[in-house]
Each structure stands twice: as C-alpha cells, then as structure tokens.
Write a structure and sequence with these properties.
The structure holds 2 protein chains of 2 kinds. Chain A is mainly alpha-helical. Chain A contains 21 helices and no strands. Chain A has one domain: Sodium/glucose cotransporter. Chain B is elongated. The chains are: A mainly alpha, B mainly alpha.
C-alpha cells in the first residue's frame, strides 16, 4: 500500500492548491457580480455571455465528478463497458442541439417552466414543472455532495465519518457563498475556470499516458491487458459489467435510454441557454459544449486504460475511494505529488462548480415559478424575487449539506442515474410536446410530468439499488420487485404515452393564439428576451 | 442601467397577430424546412445510437473481433459514435446558418416592421391558420 501512503503525504499540498483556487475564484466572482441589479442579472447573468463562454460553462456544468472520476474509474475497472457511459453522455447533446436549445432560448425567460407554461394553463403547469425541477436538482445535488465525501476519503486522508461531514459542510458553505455573492454571473465564471482547468489537466495527462506508450493506442490497450493478468483481454471487449445476465443487459438499455434523453431535460443545463443574448448564441454554446465534452470523453478513454495499464484494477479497487480513485492515482503515478495536487484541486473545483450551478437553478425555479408567479401571482418586484431566490439558496444549501452527510457512503451512481431518469421522464416529453405538437394540452402536460416523476421515483424505490442486494442502500430489507437499477426503460415511454393520452382525452383546447405566438417566436426569435444593457 | 427585457421600448413594439404570421407562406416554409431537416436527423442519430447500444449489449462476439492490433470492432464503433456526433453538429450548424437563419430573419424583420400588426387587416392570411 505504499502508493496510497505516499498519496496521503501530499495532503497539505492538495489543500494549498485548492485554497488558491477558492481564493482566485472568490475574487473573480465578486468582481463579476458588481453590477448585478435585476432578476435577469441574477438568474441569467444579464444574458451577456458569448456562445463560446457559455459553451465552456456548460462543459463545466456537465463534466461533474461523476464524469471525471466515475468514467475514468469505470474504464479502468470495467474496460469497454465504462466507455459506453461517455458515448451516451455525449450523443445526448444532439437532442439539445437539434430539438431544444434554440427554441427554448426564444420562448423562455429564466426557467424551464417558462417554456412549458407559455401556452398552457400557467398555475398548474408551473407548479408541476417547478416540483420536477426541484426533484431533479435535489437528487443531482445529493450525488455531488456524496461524491465530495468519497473524494475526500482519498485526497485528504480523512476517513472518519465526522471528518467527512465537516468537509461536506465546508463544500456546502463555499457553494452558498459563491451563489449568494455572484448569482449566475459569478457561478458561470466559476464553471468556465473549472472547465478550462479540468480539460487542460485531462489533456496533459492524456498526452503523457500516450507518450509512455509511443503514441500508440493499441500498445496502451495491450499494456492494460498485460497488467490485468489472466483474462485481461476481457477489458477490451463489451460485457464485463453489463453482460452478466439477461436482466443486466436490459438494465444497460434502460441506462442508455435515460442518458441519451436525460441531458436535454436537465434543468441546470436548460437554464444555461438563457445566459446568452440570442438563439444563435445558444446554438453556438451547444456546439462549443459538444466539442469540449466530446474531446474530454476521448481523453477519459485514454486515462481509464492508462490507469488500468499503469496501476491495475485490483490496486485501484483496494484504494480508499475505490473505483473513483483511478484518476487521482494515475496523476500521482505520472507526475508525483504536484500533479496529484493539481488534479485533486480540479476535482474539488468540479464538485463545487456543479453544486453551485444546481443550487442557482433550484433557487431560480422556486423564486421565479413558485413564489413570483404562483404565490404572489406575478405581483412582485424583481428585487423581492431576487431576495427570495437568495433565501432559497441558503435553504437549499443547508438541505444539500444535510442530505450530503446522510447520503455519504451511498451509491453515488444511483443518485446520478436517478436524476437523469427523472429528468428524461418528467421533463423531456412535455418540453418536446409543447414545442412541436399543436394539439398538446394542460392535462397532457400534468399527466406526463407527474406520471413520469412519480413512476421514476417509485420504480427506483422498489429496485435493487434500494433493497435486496449487498450493495443496496438498505441491504437488510427486501422489497425489490422491480428488477432493473435504472427505471428509464419503463418510466420514459410511460411519460410520453401519458402526455399523449392526457391530451387526447382532454375535451378542452388550449388557446390557438398562444400556440401561434409560441410557434412563431420559437422559430423566428421575435420578442425573445434581450440582453441586459448596463 | 439594467432593464428587464425589451418591454421598455413599448411604443415601438409591434403587436403582431401571430395567427396571421403562422398562416403566412413564409412562415410555413420556415417551419417546413426546420422540421424536415431536424426530425429525420434526430431520428437517424437515435437509431444509430440504439443500434450501437444493442450491439454492445447482445453482440459481444462481433464487437470483440480485432481490427488492428488490440483495437477491436467495438472500439471502432464507439469512436464512430463520436465522429457521427461531431459530424451531425457541423452539418446542422451549416444548414442553420445558410437556410434557417435567413428565413427566420426575414420574417422577424416583417413582424418588427409592423407587417403583421393586429390592427392591420391583411387579406392574404385569413382566419384559421391551422393546417
């Protein structure tokens, strides 16, 4: 275990590099947010970011610890089956590019509910959309906070439950500070800095790993097989993780469905499209995001097999933090304590930035959809709305800290997959129907949102991730009558069907004027929200 | 000065009858060229993605066949997913810039030039709008 021991000796260096990151970003956040005045400033960064900046921020928002640590580790341990994750995460962006981003930018203001409530009955639809937004954000937040706990075990050598709870609290407090001080503008700059550091760090490590193998991918794969020993060639072939039984194969299809349809329905991703001045810039941001994210996932392929070759799956699994430790361990093997410190700081920054993005999305949804448009029936000032949003940030932050401490040590992949499956089931059908189906009605929207949300959460509750197996959340209980880990295969088609059925059975009709307005605005950009001019 | 949206320029804002716009030939053409490009493309990439998922799930033998050295069919197919994603992105952007944007801009200019204002009764559009 000399590798892990020498790793712990660099704890102080890790902390110092992380402290520098926090210090620099706080200064930038404060400077960026000096003229935050209106609601559009606070929620949408004044809509003044360029496509390139926003695309980088989207990459920063999207490439969470699950992507960096999780996928690298999954490839190192499960080989080809880990690679399948990155493909789903990337291809999903085409749904956003082709069907959602520009039309959403043209018709909405701050939140996803703006688009859904455009031509349907506002109150019930806004409430439903806000509930599903909060649900998705909360599960995603829990995953990130729990991930922070797991990461700390490895990077700072804090293995006691109390110690990790303290660190989760510190991460949560920092996140609250960023969002309170900076709003969307500050949060966006944190994302941009983090994305640049993460992608640059991964690129450097990728070149390094390839250089060690003569820039020959085949040689790298061969050396990964060699390190794994007998049966190592399984690393290169599909089936190591999902090929065990017919059920696990079905589970894989379910996961693939949730990944490809979830991305374009994640509320914190959708909200980023409002931070640019026009739909053309929204398109540019998705294009930037696709290139950056795609490039990054190609790096993780090399990093994953690099970790398998230079460290070996058994050593990785035995290290504190388990599979998630593949990327930091690889950094240490390549560049010693200094590179490890840099990569660790980037991993912390990753969690911090994603958590901040989720928090501001949830706060905007509560303040803008529930408080301003439902509770106060639109009779608010932007100033009071922002005040409510700030209070919500604190409440959500504290809830996330508490939830993160509780979820610490739980299965992180379960929470991320739940967030994707819930987003794809509860949000995507209604977004697509209301943008493209003239006849779609309020009843259809409500059936689809509540049906998708409810079925996804219910099926997870009765799946093996919660009970029935040794790795479940409640291993002692046994009520896992739903065999799949991911509910997407059932809940996503169900939500689409419910949206159709509710609409067909609805005797009423929505206003054709509003439908015409939405369609014309979505395609031409007439009357779209403009950038704030200072 | 921060201002929230375009509302301040109220005097200058057009008040279009959106059903008239929707029924206009120009808009129907834009809608047609948007949908006829985006829908088939979305269907195609989803099919290609699920074909890949099913192969990776059920055709282990096929995907394990080596192509060059240690690189097998599975890895090549996976990397092709990256290539197709980048390719579709570039294709869509070219198409949007060359075909969709000019059409949308022309309609936007007409609306903002008060061509479709509610007060003005343009005979061509008629009621109904819907197909």
């Amino acid at each position: 275990m000399s590798l892990t021991e020498s790793l712990l000796s660099s704890t102080w260096l890790n902390m110092a590099i992380f402290a520098v990151f926090v210090g620099v970003t706080i200064v930038i956040v404060i400077r960026a947010s000096r003229n935050n005045k209106t609601a559009a400033d606070y929620y949408a960064g004044g809509r003044s970011f360029t496509g390139g900046q926003n695309g980088t921020a989207i990459a920063g928002d999207y490439l969470s610890a699950a992507s960096f640590l999780g996928i690298t580790g999954a490839i190192a341990v499960n080989g080809y089956d880990g690679f399948l994750y990155s493909i789903g995460f990337l291809v999903a962006w085409l749904v956003a590019l082709l069907l959602v981003a520009e039309l959403l930018r043209n018709t909405g203001k701050f939140t996803m509910a703006d688009v859904l409530a455009f031509r349907l009955r506002e109150r019930p639809v806004r409430i439903a959309a806000a509930i599903s937004t909060l649900a998705v954000c909360f599960f995603y937040l829990l995953a990130q906070m729990a991930g922070a706990g797991a990461l700390i075990a490895l990077l700072l050598g804090i293995s006691s439950w109390e110690g990790q709870a303290v660190v989760i609290t510190v991460v949560g407090a920092l996140m609250i500070m960023y969002v309170l001080l900076g709003g969307m503008k500050g949060t966006t700059w944190v994302q941009i800095i983090k994305a640049v550091l993460l992608i640059a760090g991964a690129f450097a490590m990728t070149v390094w790993v390839l250089a060690l193998h003569g820039f020959n991918l085949s040689a790298l794969l061969g050396s990964a097989v060699e390190t794994a020993g007998a049966g190592g060639e399984k690393l290169l072939n599909p089936g190591l993780a999902y090929g065990k039984s017919e059920t696990s194969k079905l589970d894989f299809i379910s996961l693939g469905l949730a990944l490809v349809l979830g991305t374009a329905a994640l509320p914190h991703v959708l909200m980023r499209f409002y931070t640019v001045p026009t739909s053309k810039e929204a398109r540019k941001s998705v294009v930037w995001a696709i290139w950056l994210i795609g490039g990054f996932y190609l790096f993780t392929l090399v990093l994953g097999y690099g970790a398998a070759a230079l460290i070996g799956a058994d050593t990785i699994k035995a290290a504190p933090g388990g599979v998630n430790s593949a990327a930091p361990l690889l950094a240490f093997v390549l560049g010693g304590p200094l590179l490890l410190g840099f990569i660790s700081a980037v991993a912390f920054a990753t969690i911090l930035a994603v958590v901040a993005g989720l928090t501001i999305t949830a706060a905007a949804s509560f303040a803008h959809d529930i408080y301003a448009n439902v509770l106060a029936k639109g009779k608010t000032t932007p100033a009071s709305e922002v005040k409510v949003a700030r209070c919500t940030v604190v409440v959500i932050g504290i809830a996330a800290i508490a939830g993160g401490i509780f979820a610490n040590g739980q299965n992180v992949a379960f929470l991320v997959a739940l967030a994707f499956a819930v987003a794809a089931s509860a949000n995507l059908p209604t977004i697509l129907y209301s943008l493209f189906w003239r006849r779609f009605t309020t009843k259809g929207a409500l059936w689809s949102i509540y049906g998708g949300l409810g079925s996804a959460i219910l099926l997870i509750a009765f799946s093996p991730v919660v009970s029935g197996t040794k790795t479940s959340m409640i291993p002692s209980a046994d009520f896992d009558w739903f065999p799949l880990n991911n509910p997407g295969l059932v809940s996503i088609p169900l939500a689409f069907a419910l949206g159709w059925l509710g609409t067909v059975l609805d005797k009423g009709q929505e206003s054709p004027e509003k439908q015409a307005e939405m369609e014309v605005r979505s395609l031409t950009g007439v009357g779209a929200e403009k950038a704030v001019s200072h | 000065m921060g201002n929230d949206a375009s509302r301040d320029a109220a005097e200058n804002t057009a008040h279009p009858d959106f059903r008239l716009v929707q029924a206009s030939d120009d808009f129907q053409r834009l809608r047609g060229s948007h949908r006829s490009f985006v829908f088939p493309l979305a269907g195609a990439f989803l099919l290609w993605y699920f074909l890949y998922v099913l192969l990776a799930d059920y055709a282990h033998g096929l995907l394990s066949i080596p192509v060059v050295g240690n690189i097998n069919v599975g890895l090549v197919l996976g990397l092709l997913q990256f290539v197709s994603t980048f390719g579709i992105t570039a294709w869509y952007v070219r198409r949007a810039n060359s075909t969709l944007d000019p059409q949308a801009e022309a309609i936007r200019a007409e609306i903002e030039g008060h061509d479709f204002d509610a007060e003005q009764s343009v005979g061509a559009g008629r009621e109904g709008g819907a197909r």
